[in-house]
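Batch job 17 of 40 flagged for manual review because the log was empty.
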Amino acid sequence: MGADLTLAAHFNEPDILLNPRSGEHLKFRSSGEGRLNLDLDIREPQDDANLGPLLDLALSAPYFASEDGGGFMRRNLCRQLYSLSRLKSEVDAAYPQGFDLYALVRPDLEFTTNLRPDEVQPLMEGKVDLLTPYWQTWGGFNDRFCLANRRGFELYTARERFVGPFIAEHGFIQAERLLRFSVEASGLRHGVIGTRARRVRANGRSHLEWDRLSALQRLALKARNVVRALATLPYRSPPG
């Protein structure tokens, strides 16, 4: 059975990509997104003024179990929440009829396993509202991607409303625990899926920190990274 697919994205576009935790520091360059054939393409310069009081609130508490002296992790969390909120507003305005199923995915992920149809069945049958990956939960729910019905979509894209109550109760901020807090406070039905992904850094290299891959999978991914690195080398004409 076929399905009608609508692709929408919101891009925060910074001047400089800076992440001291991962060592990324380079000038932002937009490329490749044209291959997505987006139905709704939303772009805006990254400006922390858009975050309003949310950023001040997040910076008022430490990030759980992590050094975040410059506030980069907390800023990035707020930027992610803002991006999701903007995406929801634009999607709802463009498609007021809504959708049966929503897939919300970070743009810096490369999937290493396929999504099994049977894993989505509880969502399609109305038994759960939100499905998130079972791995990298850090005491909460993995927030790298999700599948959701309308109720789950509304919650997942409105987590900024729970930042204040979460900090008031816990005295810190942390992305995965914030998602779990939001889900449980809203009474949503949550489930997990086995699909795995890994982060692709701004230089195109993949990060394997949470993957447990077979030897063959690791070899294939290393080969892919080598090809990417060679592709970024400047071309020099042969002598003669």
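Reviewer: the log was empty due to a logging misconfiguration, but the result itself is present. DSSP finds seven helices and eleven strands in the chain. Unflagging and moving on to job 18.
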